Structures
1.
Amino acid sequence: MESVAPGYSAPALLLDPRGRLEVATRFWRRGPDEAWLVCDPGDAGRLAARLEGYRIRVDVRIDDRSATWGAIAVRGRSAPGLRPVAEAAVAGSGGGTTAHGWPGVPGFDVVAPLAGLAGAAAALEERAVEVGDDTGYEELRIRCGVPRSGAELDRSTFPQEAFLDVDAVSFDKGCFVGQEVVGRIHARGHVNRYLRHLRPAEPHVRLAPGAEVVVGATAVGAVTSSTTGLALGYVRREVEPPAGAAVAGRPVVIEALPAR
């Protein structure tokens, strides 16, 4: 955490002793003695409670502000130009913005008290196109191969399965909860499944989340998120992409995710 300068952020994970994911978050240093942890909706309470349990003889205060604060994720080519708009809208509220892009796509997050966040949303709406979960934002997330809590990420997920180890795990920083398992996988092991793109042969098809991915007569995985013409899903490691498969009887191609 000391390597993250004030105003900047980095992905981070809270794991359990078995090396499985508790919460995927973003560590955002606000100053020498203050940091924010930004996570998906519904994860804040569990994150704060777990951290409180590790607060032993450490001069730190942990606050769960998810009831009174919120975040807006802005992604897309126009994001760099929109960031000053968001910063001006939350100025004086205690909020701020930090860069947070996806593979090949620039972006930022804006965090503020809910009243200030409403002003930021109004200011952004004048310049940006707001999209719902079933339109552009979710489509872009799937195309970039970004996992989401409640879809690709839950408390059974190993970091390496969703390639979170690429930028959210340090293998030389010292001890952390779950380090033994995650380090052993990194050094001389493997996981049994990986997050993949699933591309239907028919571009108008939208695969159903939860549907099995079948190679030959064997189920090798399942769909986790989908948009028209593309989906995310976990597939057993024995299936090397690109590979042909079927979902609900429709032909698909299993593809590797974009490099993180």
2.
Amino acid sequence: MSAGDDNHHNDDHDHDHQHANSRPLSDPELRVKALESVLVDKGLIDPAAMDALIENYETRVGPHNGAQVVAHAWSDQQYRQRLLEDGTKAIAELGFSGMEGEDMVVVENSATVHNVLVCTLCSCYPWPTLGLPPVWYKSAPYRSRVISEPRKVLKEFGLKIGDDVEVRVWDSTAELRYMVLPERPPGTDGMSEEQLAALVTRDAMIGVSLIPAPKI
């Protein structure tokens, strides 16, 4: 593959998506949905507050796990190598595994390659590391357009990729989830893993943004 090419990968896995968006809900999930509906109907919980709680999990609490993985990879080159060789096993070293994250592949951004994630048929997503998928990730326009015109979609997110950088689009499947290892930003030498993790965003681990250098 030459620099500047836009490539779509799914590792030849069949999109047999038996997961949260296409499989029947499990009994516990059905109970939660029913309970939530009753509580809203009775006025015991505010739907707006529930939405805010979910948004907080999507953008802050959930991606905190992935941010720890990224920060550790930036700080420990041996761990970084293990992460790129066997994402599932390396992520489990930090205690993050489970449903929707049983089989993980980590792809690394660099000066010459930019990776971005999608699930074209629904919204397969690595919940143990990135939390809940954002609404836009599940939307039909994103799922279709990021495959056919990734540079244009990334530009709409505020991310302009140079023509000399290859864009690789990774298509998740029921069997396999992906996570982006973003480039470590300049100006972070000497920072602790906790400080580094605070810089890492969910969108950078999906590949629709970069991590800027910390403000001095």
3.
Amino acid sequence: MTGFLKGVIKFQNEVYPSKQDLFERLAQGQSPEALFVACSDSRVETAMITQTDPGELFIMRNAGNIVPPHTSQTGGMTATLEFAMRVLDVPHIVVCGHTECGAMKGIMNLDAISHLPHVSEWLGYSQGAKDVVDEIAADKSDEERMELLLQENVKLQLQHLRTHPSVLRKLAKGTLTLHGWVYNIKTGVVSAWDEADGRFERVDERYADLAAEVAKGSACDH
């Protein structure tokens, strides 16, 4: 806790004053650019990965970056998603998986988490991804199977998003875009799902036009 307290004191005394105008604007409301669904893993720092300021991302986190399919029962993920779509009118949703994910390791070896009944039940929302891996990659190495599972889980959660009425409304109007990412902790590389090509590509390749704009803007700044 000592480190945390030092951080809070530094924020109050140094960081906040340097960004006071930003925080005063945020006190009037929020208008985030994206809903970011990430794993709770402490190694996944969403603001650092995306280089965003407070107010730019509306974040939902849980074990395995999971979005349960829509049901009549209310849950925290469903309620938060509905608020993001119907109230904040967020135009993008990013589902971001990551390497070395404990949740995905758990679903690959359910016996190892049998003493965690709630975790085991929660990971049932990723069972479809595990089934795909078992079907198409049974002869692959453990490392290759895990890489594929990370990707298939992201794709599955994108499918689950489409079962939510609040998401379907915006997709039907063309005011929402879904994105599937996988973040590599060791290399820092973020890969994005390209449905047209049927594969994951580095974000600078997947969003080549945007990357070119960013590069052009950086050149102008210099």
4.
Amino acid sequence: MTENPFDTQGKKMGWCPGCGNYRLLDVLKDALHELDIEQRSLVIVSGIGQGAKTPQYVNAHMFNGLHGRALPVAMGVKLSNRNLVVIAESGDGCMYGEGGNHLLHAIRRNYDITVIVHDNMVYGLTKGQASPTSQLGMKTSLQVNGVMLEPFNPIAVLVALDAPFVARASVGDSEQTKEIIKQAVSFKGLAVVDIFQPCVIFNKMNTYQWFKENTYYLPDDYDSNDRTQAFEKAIETEKLPLGVIYRRDGRELYEDLLGITHIPLYEHEVSGEAFEKMLAEYR
């Protein structure tokens, strides 16, 4: 394989040794390289958190925003230039907690962007309190008697809201995760990939070994177009399914509903008369 153009050689990393973010970063860069995406055409947007540092280590355009606000920025980037490959990525707390409302409406609108969620089932940047996906009973520095609430089920919510591409992966399996990310980035529409990755410091429950023992891959004959079957898989708890769980091709994009062309916004010419009209409407 040729040298990966997305590598940032020699840059100091801000993660703990053994963090699952390292593997996810490598898998993401390999997936983008194999898809032959131009660096100048890629924008990665993140919120706040350990997972949200990822774009800083990818040699491409990036925007690091506010906690839970990766999706609004990613949407704006895509609407301003449909020719860009836009990825919104952040942690489970950022995407499902603070950013949960944005995710719900991104599904309704169906932008052509990819959403990658680093799901380590804990808030890693703010020192280990429970996140929306933390397992029942897990003890943290804040939940000293154990988490009392059932974990948020992102896959079930995504399928229930008819998100057009829903997948789950695990960084313990680099090749499978890479292929899932490649499918998501290539998909026309909102593609969400929930990726299990351990926090080796603050989450002693959901380790590499735990994810290996408590997940399984969907069989080859699984029909990801069957929404009922996808929801059945989404609510399984004994073992959690990995793979493309639901896929609905052909759903109309929000960009098309708005009538946005592939001419980037910065190339549009607005006449003086049109500009005055816009100002009048704004006032």
